[in-house]
Every structure is written in C-alpha cells, then in structure tokens.
Specification:
Elements: E1 21-23, E2 26-28, H1 48-51, H2 54-63, E3 73-74, E4 79-80, H3 94-101, H4 105-123, H5 129-140
Antiparallel strand pairs: 1-2, 3-4
Helix pairs in contact: 4-5
Bound molecules: iron/sulfur cluster (2 copies).
Length: about 150
C-alpha cells in the first residue's frame, strides 16, 4: 500500500465501518473482509507527518508490525481488534478528514472511494475479489456490514 494517491495520502486504516456518505451515483462504504488500508508500512506513506500530530505519529509507528500490517489487524478474520477505539486517523468521518486533509464534507465520498481503490489495488490487485466486492458495494449499496 502506498502513498501515491492524488490526494496525497493513503487512508491509513479506514477500518470497517457502517458510515456512509452519499454523493452522486456511488456511495462510499467499507466492505467486510478487506482490511487493505490496515497495511501501515511507513515507507508506503512518506507524508504521514503532514497530517498526523506528533502524538498520532508516535501512535502510528507503534502500530506497525514487523510485516508492515497493523498490530491490531486480525489477518485471519480480517477485522480490527480495537475497532471501537481505533485512532482518529483510522476513521472515515467528515470531522477527522477535514482536520487531517482539508477535505470538505461534500468531497469526502469521492475522496474515500479513490483511496479505497488504491489501497485495494495495491494489496489485492485491480481484478481481485476485494475490488469486485468494493465496486459492487459502492455502486449498489449492498452493505456488507462492519465490525
Ligand atoms: S487500528 Fe484497526 S482500523 Fe486502524 S489500522 Fe489497525 S486494524 Fe486497521
Ligand atoms: S480499504 Fe476501504 S473497503 Fe478496504 S478495509 Fe479499508 S476502508 Fe474498508
């Protein structure tokens, strides 16, 4: 996963969530059994210091496992073990994204969709089952629930 989005960051650990933002024909949502954004290798995200506070930066680094995945990520179940208490930078919410990235609420839907696509593409591939499910979910609103 990589810092390569046109938005300047990777959505570090969006997590599984039921939060949805409507905008146009597609509506962002997190799909169950993905976790592509929980790969936190800092080498893939060189601009962390631009949107994380010093405390958050320290927290972020403390979460990076030896394999680059978040230590809180259950790779078998593909779930976040601390979902209710996940950090601000793991939350796809208007307030947090406005604070960190200057994203206006009306821009969040498109921004989140593009970031998820990049994460999923990097981790699983453009033709992966995860990408197919994500595209289906945002196009059809077939929610997969959350953790
Ligand atoms: S805290 Fe949870 S949502 Fe955040 S990166 Fe880790 S596993 Fe993903
Ligand atoms: S990349 Fe997107 S769909 Fe996948 S777990 Fe993260 S927020 Fe959910």
């Amino acid at each position: 996963m990589v810092e390569a989005t046109p938005f300047g960051l990777r959505l570090s650990a969006l997590g599984r969530t039921i939060v949805k933002f409507s905008n146009g024909m597609k509506t962002w949502q997190c799909i169950r059994g993905c976790g592509a954004c929980c790969y936190l290798d800092p080498s893939e995200r060189p601009d962390l210091e631009e949107y994380l506070s010093p405390e958050e930066l320290q927290q972020y680094f403390s979460m990076v496992g030896h394999d680059g995945w978040c230590v809180n990520y259950d790779r078998v179940g593909k779930t976040c073990r601390i979902y209710p208490d996940r950090p601000r930078f793991c939350r796809v919410e208007p307030e947090s994204f406005g604070e960190m990235f200057g994203i206006e609420p009306e821009e969040l839907n498109e921004f989140a969709i593009e970031c998820c696509r990049e994460h999923i593409s990097d981790i699983y591939g453009d033709n992966s089952w995860e990408m197919v499910r994500f595209e289906s979910a945002i196009a059809n609103g077939d929610a997969h629930g959350s953790e």
